[in-house]
Design brief:
21 strands, HlyD family secretion protein, UPF0194_transport, six-stranded antiparallel beta barrel, about 25% strand, coiled coil, 7 helices, about 550 residues, alpha+beta
């Protein structure tokens, strides 16, 4: 029994030793660190090139030939120093060309001013108003004639009826006397008809002449609207048709009066004509005389109606003339505005030519010298001796302090703000100088950003390079852990702490997960918020991947 017990204990000791030895090989070995109150520090390094902070541009005249380059890119110049020379022959030729162009531009401007002077004219509205006034006067006169005709008709028909009754039982001598009076009356009626015919025809002819004059005026205008010409032509044709109708109607009236006059003369000469025939002639004469009076009244009414229609047409013409004149005035206003704008453009061209001529005269007076306007450094102009200048050719002078331009990762650039200080080591020069960040420009669509820092006066060379470093510290946080202890998965940020746990083999260290909220982090540390004890040993590195709940063995801190 004793031997058996000793053997069992021996085996157990060997197995325990082997178990410990195996643990030393299989258990993850880790190094740890501790969280503490402190700051988060940043150190950013990079390289960049020097560029001009701002440029002053010296514009060269177009199509000039470079004679000699005196100052090359990168050379410093002072205000008044000659940078390059232009050939004099080409300058003199350019001055002559500019003088001719300037004189031509001034003449064109004077011509444009003269063409823009308005020419007095009678508007269509004025002519239409005159025609309307004439139509109103004619209608008033026609209405007066109608009133007189109506009054004459009443008196004349009453007289005719009285005469007709009396002549039925008259004596031979009375009949003869009546016939004589009828003959004289027929003659007067004929003369009156002839005079009325001449007056009506003359009036219609004047209307035709007025319409013809209006059409001639419109045809004389180069800018007369086509619709106005067509309307004027139509009015003329209507007036001519009215003239023919009046002439035919009045001629017919004259012929009827002439025939009546001849019949009255025959009746007077043939007094012994049969009684029945005489009675019939008397009745017929009475009826014809009444009809003649009715026709005169009807003609007066027709005349008034025609005058009313003429007045209505004149009113329509006035409205059309207003629209036409409005269009003409708008067109004239547009032409005037176009002329004004053209004159302004010409004046601008003249001022530009005058400025070019002044610059050319100044260059000729300076024997073709192009001088620096301010102190600075000559940048690349892209010109060599013998070259011809193009439109927009310029000499650039870098003035003021230089800027250090650097490209860096966007996540690092987010730490830099305007005014951040950086230490700059200029290539080829000992020591460091301090620069100040002016701007940080994020480049859209990339993970890079451009940082621009202003160099001290006189430091750096245009196109040169330098390295820089930036050290920054955050405010003090209650808990800052080593950046190696910070982990992240799909749940969020956390860390693993090596904490003791009881097992069948005794107390062992196990990886315990602690969830964290990151307040700020850098490449060396992270300010966090979470249930992390001051003495918690936070796993920073391990010989293999470690996860929550695994046994670990601390080999470092």
């Amino acid at each position: 029994m004793k031997k058996t017990a000793v053997l069992f204990l021996t085996i157990m000791a060997v197995l325990t030793f082997l178990s410990r030895a195996l643990d030393s090989v299989t258990v993850t070995r880790v190094e740890t660190g501790y969280g503490k109150q402190g700051i988060v520090s940043y150190e950013i390094e990079g390289t960049g090139e020097f560029a001009a902070g701002r440029f002053v541009y010296i514009t060269l005249p177009e199509d000039m030939q470079i004679g000699e380059i005196l100052k090359r890119p990168g050379q410093k110049v002072q205000a008044g120093d000659t940078i390059l020379l232009l050939q004099m022959e080409r300058l003199v030729e350019e001055r002559e060309n500019l003088s001719l162009e300037l004189e031509k531009a001034r003449l064109l401007l004077e011509q444009e001013k003269l063409s823009g002077i308005p020419v007095p004219r009678v508007t269509e509205e004025t002519l239409a108003m005159q025609q309307l006034a004439a139509a109103k006067r004619a209608l008033e006169a026609g209405q007066e004639d109608l009133a007189e005709a109506e009054e004459d008709y009443l008196f004349s028909t009453a007289d005719l009826e009285h005469d007709y009754v009396q002549k039925k039982n008259r004596t031979r001598e009375e009949v003869k006397e009546d016939n004589r009076r009828a003959m004289k009356s027929a003659r007067r009626a004929y003369e009156a008809a002839r005079l009325a015919r001449d007056a009506a025809v003359k009036k219609a002819e004047r209307e035709v002449e007025d319409r013809q004059k209006k059409l001639d005026k419109l045809e004389a205008r180069e800018d007369a609207p086509e619709e106005d010409l067509e309307r004027a032509q139509l009015d003329l044709e209507r007036a001519e048709e009215d003239l023919e109708d009046i002439r035919d109607g009045q001629d017919l009236e004259v012929e009827e009066k002439r025939a009546a006059m001849y019949a009255a003369e025959e009746t007077y000469e043939d007094i012994d004509y049969g009684e029945e025939t005489a009675r019939e002639e008397l009745r017929k004469a009475y009826e014809d005389a009444v009809k003649a009076e009715e026709d005169k009244l009807k003609n007066a009414r027709d005349t008034v109606k025609g005058l009313e229609e003429s007045l209505y047409r004149s009113m329509e013409n006035l409205e059309n003339a207003k629209v036409s004149d409005a269009g003409v005035m708008a067109e004239e206003a547009a032409r005037k505005e176009i002329s004004r704008l053209r004159q302004e453009s010409m004046e601008l061209d003249i001022r530009q030519l005058e400025k070019k001529l002044e610059k050319t005269d100044a260059l000729i007076a300076g024997e073709g010298r192009v001088e620096a306007a301010v102190d600075g450094i000559v940048a690349d102009s892209g010109l060599e001796a013998g070259d011809r200048t193009q439109a927009g050719s310029q000499v650039r002078l870098a003035v003021g302090n230089l800027n250090l331009i650097a490209q860096m990762d966007k996540d690092k650039s987010e730490l830099l703000k305007q005014g951040t200080k950086m230490k700059v080591k200029i290539t080829g020069q000992p020591g460091e100088v301090e620069a100040e960040v002016e701007s940080v420009d994020q480049t859209a669509g990339t993970d890079k950003a451009q940082v621009t820092a202003a160099m001290p006066d006189g430091e750096g060379s245009l196109g040169g390079s330098a390295s820089f470093s930036v050290y920054m510290e955050s405010d003090i946080y209650p808990l800052v852990i080593p950046i190696e202890a910070l982990r992240e998965d799909n749940i969020g940020f956390y860390c693993l702490a090596a904490e003791p746990a009881k097992t069948i083999l005794g107390e062992e260290l196990t990886a315990v997960r602690i969830n964290l909220e990151v307040l700020e982090k850098s490449s060396t540390g992270a300010a966090v918020s979470g249930p992390v004890a001051r003495d918690a040993r936070l796993i920073t590195t391990s010989d293999k991947a470690v996860s929550e709940g695994e046994r670990v063995r601390v080999v470092g801190k």
